[in-house]
Amino acid sequence: VEASIPEGQRAAWKKFSATEFKTKDEFESEVVKHIETTLARSLFNCDEAAAYGGVALAFRDRLVIEWNRTQQRQSSADPKRVYYLSLEFLMGRALDNAMLNVGMKDVAKEGLGELGFRMEDVISQERDAALGNGGLGRLAACFLDSLATLNYPAWGYALRYKYGIFKQEIVDGYQVEVPDYWLDFNPWEFPRHDVTVDVQFYGHVRKYMDESGKQISVWEDGELVTAVAYDAPIPGFGTRTTNNLRLWSSKASHGEFDFTKFNSGEYEASVAEQQRAETISAVLYPNDSLERGKELRLKQQYFWCAASLFDIVRRFKKSRKAWKEFPNQVAIQLNDTHPTLAIPELMRILLDQEGLEWDEAWSIVQKTFGYTNHTVLPEALEKWSVPLVQHLLPRHLQIIYDINLNFMHYVERNFPKDREMLGRVSIIEESTPKMVRMAYLAVIGSHKVNGVAELHSDLIKTTIFKDFVKIYGPDKFTNVTNGITPRRWLHQANPRLSELIASKLGGYDFLRDLTLLHKIEAYVDDKEFRKEFQEIKYANKVRLAKYTKEAHGISVNPSSLFDIQVKRIHEYKRQQLNIFGVIYRYLELKDMSPEERKKVQPRVSFFGGKAAPGYWMAKTIIHLINQVGAVVNNDKDIGDLLKVVFLEDYNVSKAEIICPASDISEHISTAGTEASGTSNMKFVLNGGLVIGTCDGANIEITREIGEDNIFLFGNLSEDVEDLRHAHTYSGDFAIDPKLERVFAVIRAGRFGDAAQFSALVNSIVEHGDYYLVSDDFASYIDTQKLIDAAYKDQEAWLTKTITSVSRMGFFSSDRCIDEYAEMIWNVE
Ligand code: GPW
Fold first, then answer.
1. 568, 574, 610, 800: which one is catalytic?
2. Considering the domain 560-801, what is its CATH architecture?
3. What is the pLDDT of residue 273?
4. Residue 393 near residue 438, CB atoms below 8 Å
């Protein structure tokens, strides 16, 4: 790569080149300098927010130095790069992670103390970067950490939303959404005003023949919106590799103002137009696993795909390699179908701008893309109406039709007898209006398709992509079971446990190779180790109890069994099953004599999670949980025997407090509906046990830790279809009597006006119980009883938790990334 500074001046440059702080004193000096200059504050007005700013800027400098070096190294080596396209990156806080990955947290802690601040207070000043809804977005964030830690040359691409996922407030038991404007002070992003892409929308396509008789397509007119790059450094753990997350922000393409309009007195109109352009990257859509078909969402998707593809192609072209080398230089992973427009967009670039022939372009495209599917739920599978795509992206619709035509020919040739197949696998659904099936386009345009846990990857082959397995053969479909980064979810969230493990393994190597955890199984009978392990769990429960008191005014006893379900609120995840179970427990407690109550295992049921703003049933579930809490928590008969807590505004930074504090966590989706789940892994890695269905990664967790160490219950995925059918058609569908009892008290108004919960109850009683709550209820209650009994034997319980932790090595996101690299990306 060429340097912009001439040879003769480089010595001076190098002499004064930025260096990283190495000692406590140097750290303090940088903090104070940043507070006094960058932030223009002083000794006299330095609050915790300013202290956070100073520390963040000091660490930012360190990251930037390694980031520049990494990018420099990668530019000259020009290896094959991985591009992870995800509309969501649920990063959480960056400072603690930066300190730990760089390995300077202890130094910083001491230095901060000398400057008059406590590390925890400073860390908690940072706002979460909440650019995601739930598991899918957090997975992308874990992957970035692993990619950097494993030294893969990789970039994340997403949108720079002004508003991340809304902040949840609970008012009178109801969820209220508050906008999350998170950019007031964000030291981790770098605007690149010189890195822009103009993205086109609307307009029409003109076709003509050139001199050689070749058909040429020109996409004309319409409007342009400019994408501006904002970059964030992603440091690896214990490595110098610092990768890049590039977020695109939208703005009007014609500079500050539209001067024609400005001069003709249409000042307000031109500002309004400016704002209209900015709305593209204004807000993250808050629907998890639900597709709503809004035009602005499609605009977001194309804006982001077009800007990212332009950027990737621009970088490739610098190397002046032939186009056939593109798939050897570039691997693009599609995180769900949200970035599927990247497929027709790369086709458009290759055909219309680079002049390649169709077959060559298509072969490049297929080799470049990989597609990860995260759900089989029909309501989450993206479809865009043909008239909308035609209007917004006329050239892309033509390309999609051409892709489909070629594909239809191929299917026709290979399956001449199965005439029905064409309609089933067509990218275009023949409905009114016609719809583009994005998942099919993603499958057809990629060389590999993966699910995110074994059961899920098997299910996609037998359900939504069954025909495609026939067409392409089984090898196109594969599994990469999800994982989590042990840096954030063990070392950062649970420093004492990390330290205990390190003390036995002789260092922190396990954080880079989590399979080393198996060595702590040797300490399962070690008295000292057991005691320390148990004390750590207790301390983490005290930490959550303290938080619960501060945030919600509810006192909980840390000696109780902590039962936690935190995740997006969804009928398929079945928080309703959990709360109905809590009500049942409450009724049993009420029936008991004071003598009998003394034998009961006290329990706290924690819930947390956001409902999509338009998802009425999910909001009703939140309301019921809060109403039950209000009754149970104030019942003098019950006292500490049962508490119900709804933790407001569940997010990544709260998960770091919550996950280490469970005795039991709940992963109780209807079998076959949860593709993987990842919080199940976080809880077990932190010494909690699981109550769960045979679904998603629960199955593989069971295989790894042993079935004696997990509480499985409920119907199996292969029986779900028949059960649903029977609910509707067999005529003798009866609600479980225990559940009937719960419904009776809800109907009687025990938890407030029964009418408010009638839709929830009726979805089970009258509308076919699609999620099998009644079918699984007895098994759920029985299993909870087994848990109470098992918890009484604290020594046996402790053995289970230690054994489980030691067997969780498989679930590191480092293992996932190595699997993607080898099976899908072919990168080193
Ligand atoms: F519907 N997931 C998610 F597949 O968090 F697109 N949001 C989503 O919109 C979708 C999936 C989608 C989750 C899965 O529900 C969860 O089981 C999985 O562990 C996670 O993605 C990461 O793969």
1. 568
2. 3-Layer(aba) Sandwich (3.40)
3. 86
4. no
Q: Which sign, positive or negative, has the C-alpha torsion 452, 456, 457, 463?
A: negative
The Cα-based distances of 288 to 133, 477, 693 in angstroms read: 6, 24, 21
Tell me, yes or no, if 324 is annotated catalytic. Answer: no
The question of whether 568 is a catalytic residue gets the answer: yes
In this predicted structure, what is the pLDDT of residue 41?
97
- Nearest Cα neighbor of 441 from 500, 522, 384 is 384
Contact criterion met (CB below 8 Å) for 428 and 437: yes
| 567 catalytically annotated | yes
For residue 263, what pLDDT is reported? 67
Best residue for ligand 1 mutational test, from 90, 131, 136, 463 (most atoms within 8 Å of Cβ): 136
* Beta strands 435-437 and 383-385, pairing class: antiparallel
Atom of ligand 1 nearest to the CA of 482: 23
User: Of these residues, 447, 567, 570, 574, which one is catalytic?
Assistant: 567
Looking at ligand 1, which residue's alpha carbon is closest to its atom 19?
Answer: 677
| Catalytic residue status for 678 | yes
| CATH fold group of domain 78-93+128-481+819-825 | Rossmann fold (3.40.50)
pLDDT at 733: 86
Q: How far apart are CA 184 and CA 62, in angstroms?
A: 22
pLDDT computed for residue 261 by the predictor:
62
133 within ligand 1 shell (Cβ under 6 A): yes
Domain with CATH 3.40.50.2000 in the chain: 78-93+128-481+819-825, 560-801
Residues of the chain with pLDDT under 70: 1-2, 255-263
83 near 157, Cβ under 8 Å?
A: yes
Does 374 qualify as catalytic in the annotation? yes
Q: Which residue's CA is minimally distant from atom 21 of ligand 1?
A: 136
Residues 270-301 as b/e (b if ≥16 CB within 10 A, e otherwise) read bbebbeebeebbbbbbbbbbbbeeeeebbbbb
Question: Which ligand 1 atom sits nearest the alpha carbon of residue 139?
Answer: 22
Whether cis (ω within 30° of 0) applies to the bond prior to 179 is no
